[in-house]
Amino acid sequence: MRKSGYKKYNNWKAIPAALFILLIGGFTSVKAQMFSVKSLPQRYGTPLTSAYIGIIPTNFQYKPRGSGSNPQPNAFDFNDPLYRLGLDLSGLEINATAGWNLGPLNNLNYFGLEIGFNSKYPVLRSRPFVLSLPLAIKIGYTRVNDKNSGNISNDFRQNNATIGSGLHAGFMLPHRIRISLEGTINYGFSTRSLGQSSGSAWIIESRNRIYFDRVLGQIGFVAGVDYRYTRFNGSGIEFDYGEKKMGFILGITF
Q1: How far apart are CA 236 and CA 36, in angstroms?
Q2: Over the stretch 34-66, which tens digit does the pLDDT of each residue have?
């Protein structure tokens, strides 16, 4: 029975190589994208980098596949805020999210790290408005552990890589104000560690930003509201979890 399970997910092993090729091509696109920013009809240079902090109310809940499945007695459920640090380099974003003393018993710790690449391809452009199709690639690591347990083998640990697309709308307003609205759906694989059988992961995400550029010399400000749902379908149902995040971020641009 386990061998057939492995075969079911063997095709996912080709995904990392494909993602790597797309990333290399995407970085070339970022350079072209950065160059094209200068050619847009605007009166000032658009900042390409932002750094931010955020508070992320999160619901992490065990959701086994199939009807009639009951939560495991050691499920890592919690409904608490997490905290995030992030850096956005014009299409390449790195962020870390963490939380402590989570869950009904205050016994859970959370850590997540993600590298995301997003390249936008305009389909409609006018002077104040751009409508684009984004190519979104995300590589992430998520861990939830019981700080009172000495057995780390029972921790929730998932490495995932996903790819997807959606729709992005950008608005250039007077007084150096920009608005960015984006929704994407990603799908890919998820595994506890390399060499083990893989499951799947999919992500539905909405990212919304308002930028106030060049407020203090070269420094501007950014605020945003995000929503994200991640579904982890592990190689076994004990790692089937749903994660809902509503993020509120504040940062600077430069």
Answers
A1: 46
A2: 434 433 444 457 898 999 999 999 999 999 887
Q: Are residues 15 and 161 in contact, defined by beta-carbon separation less than 8 angstroms?
A: yes
- Distance from chain centroid for Cα 130: 23
Is the separation of the CB atoms in 132 and 170 below 8 Å? Answer: yes
98 forms beta bridges with 83, 111
DSSP H stretches of helix in 70-203: none
Instruction: Please list, in sequence order, all residues whose beta carbon lies within 8 angstroms of the beta carbon of residue 202, skipping any fewer than 6 positions away.
Output: 162, 185, 186, 187, 188, 230, 231
pLDDT tens across 85-115, in order?
Answer: 999 998 999 999 999 999 999 999 999 999 9
SS3 category, 75:
coil
Angle at 31 between CA 27 and CA 35, to 5 degrees: 160
Distance of alpha carbon 151 from alpha carbon 139, whole angstroms: 26
The pair of structure tokens assigned to 23 is 């990333």
Give the number of C-alpha atoms closer than 13 A to the C-alpha of residue 127, restricted to the C-beta side.
5
Could you tell me the residue ranges of all domains in the chain? 2-253
Q: What are the φ/ψ torsions at residue 103 (nearest 5 degrees)? A: 85, 170
| CATH (one of 3.40.50.150, 2.60.120.200, 2.60.40.640, 2.40.160.20) for 2-253 | 2.40.160.20
The distance from CA 125 to its chain's CA centroid, rounded to whole angstroms, is 27
- Token pair in block for residue 152: 């780390």
Q: What is the DSSP letter of 40?
A: S
